[in-house]
Design a protein that fits this description.
Layout: E1 7-13, H1 15-18, H2 26-36, E2 40-47, H3 51-64, E3 67-71, H4 82-90, E4 94-96, H5 98-110, E5 124-126, E6 130-132, E7 141-146, E8 149-154, H6 158-169, E9 180-189, H7 193-200, E10 211-217, E11 220-229, H8 233-251, E12 255-257, H9 263-274, E13 278-282, H10 288-294, E14 303-308, H11 312-319, H12 323-329, H13 334-346, E15 352-358, E16 373-380, E17 386-391, H14 396-415
Parallel strand pairs: 1-2, 1-3, 3-8, 13-14, 13-15
Antiparallel strand pairs: 4-5, 6-7, 7-8, 9-11, 9-12, 10-11, 15-16, 16-17
Helix pairs in contact: 3-4, 9-14
């Protein structure tokens, strides 16, 4: 059992989170960082912009945890209630912090703008609170002590929250003495989560040390290993390594990475290591594959760009897909997917080209090519091309997301010189 001094909790505030308009990515990121610092995250709480609920949640979690991270609710509008909630929890008035007010004014002056009077509220903090500087926005963070808990309130935007956590929160977190936490992530593709679990067998028993669990996302099943004990680090490391060896023996041929990096980053790193470059030709995904790749910083050293050939006319005009192939086989076919990839390769200085063409829906499907039919092709300067058909289920965005993941996995297999293990249909990867 963990003690309160070892426990941490996270509160995410915002109506947009509770009604599903925005995804809470802050809690995932914070959990990883807190765990790496030796704390045990026992709860994520998501609450709306409601003063009574925020106050109640803060009080409850401050009683059971030593570290409490709150994100959101520090903006200048009437629905930003974190400051007021802290005031009520502590029974203290809010006071204006002169240094923070000056920093907010400087932020606006850099853009040759006068500070709107409404932003003045962001300089308020409880009497006993300390403001955390925010060089990336107008909302300073706030640190207070509630009973035995240190509460760190951070802005919601990740571009502001991440650097504030690293600069003003992480250095103050002292790992509990005599406690070691070790984690390992092994990523697999081509098997469903239930198939991976069946192969792992007793490794997933909940009373086992280290704990082994799985998570699935868009065709990737991650095996997560966690060891938490009072043993010395070398003993914990040995247990993690032994368990990782057992996982490899169980699902080895399906493993494509042994870290928690996103798939586009993994593929780009392999391209860099080989000194090779990639182009893409997209139809039904409309640029999503290129967007996923370019979301990784520094992608330009391995990714040249691509074409969005949504119409048959552009497939022919831009990448040279033969009109005869389009007429005889249709845009959603092996022949056209392969011609798209080959045409992209011929018209670029790239080593590899990926092409995607399909029926993403909701309309456009036929008996022969129902919604969810997707052809993905890879062409490379050295070696034979690869073209595969997928029958995917779900709504339009789901089909397009899975198409992007499948294309990257096909290229990853080629870059690893892995056997052409059959990528299962999306319906089997759930």
């Amino acid at each position: 059992m963990t003690t309160p001094a070892e426990r941490a909790a996270i509160i995410s505030i915002g109506d947009e989170l509770t009604v599903g308009q925005s995804l809470d990515t802050n809690s995932r990121w914070l959990s990883g960082r807190l765990t790496s610092l030796g704390l045990s995250v026992v709860e994520h709480a998501t609450v709306p912009d409601d003063l009574e609920r925020i106050v109640a949640t803060m009080r409850r979690l401050a009683e059971s945890c030593h570290t409490l991270i709150v994100t959101g609710g520090l903006g200048p509008t009437a629905d930003d209630l974190t400051r007021e909630a802290l005031s009520e929890v502590l029974g203290e008035p809010l006071v204006e912090d002169e240094n923070s007010l000056a920093a907010i004014r400087r932020w606006f002056s850099i853009s040759d703008r006068a500070m709107p009077e409404r932003n003045r509220v962001q300089a308020l903090r409880p009497t006993s609170g300390v403001h955390l500087p925010n060089p990336n926005g107008t909302a300073p963070g706030i640190r207070v002590v509630v009973g035995g808990a240190t509460v760190h309130c951070l802005p919601g935007p990740p571009s502001e929250m991440h650097p504030m956590f690293e600069a003003s929160v992480a250095p103050l977190i002292i790992p509990p003495g005599g406690r070691t936490i070790r984690t390992r992530v092994i990523q697999t593709a081509g098997l469903g989560e239930s198939d991976v679990a069946q192969r792992l067998g007793p490794l997933m028993d909940r009373d086992r040390k280290p704990l082994v669990g799985t998570t699935a996302s868009r065709g990737v099943v991650s095996v997560r290993i966690r060891d938490e004990s009072a043993d010395p680090a070398d003993i914990a490391d040995a247990r993690i390594s032994d368990t990782a060896d057992e996982v490899r023996r169980a699902v080895g041929e399906w493993i494509f990475a042994e870290d928690d990096a996103p798939l586009p980053e993994i593929v780009l790193n392999r391209l860099r290591a080989a000194g090779e470059r990639l182009v893409v030709v997209e139809s039904c995904t409309g640029g999503m594959l290129g967007q996923a790749i370019t979301a990784v910083p520094g992608s330009s050293d391995a990714f040249l760009g691509g074409w969005i050939t949504y119409s048959n006319a552009l497939k022919h005009a831009l990448v040279g897909v033969p009109l005869r192939a389009l007429e005889e086989h249709g845009a959603v076919s092996a022949e056209v997917a392969l011609a798209m990839a080959s045409g992209g390769l011929d018209r670029s200085g790239a080593h590899h080209a990926l092409a995607i063409t399909g029926v993403a829906g909701p309309g456009g499907g036929t008996h022969a090519k129902p919604v969810g039919t997707v052809w993905i092709a890879r062409a490379s300067r050295d070696g034979d091309p690869d073209v595969r058909r997928f029958r995917m289920r779900g709504e339009r965005d789901t089909i397009r997301d899975w198409s992007v993941t499948s294309a990257l996995l096909i290229l990853d297999q080629r870059l690893r010189h892995a056997p052409s293990t059959r990528l299962l249909r999306q319906s089997e990867l759930r």
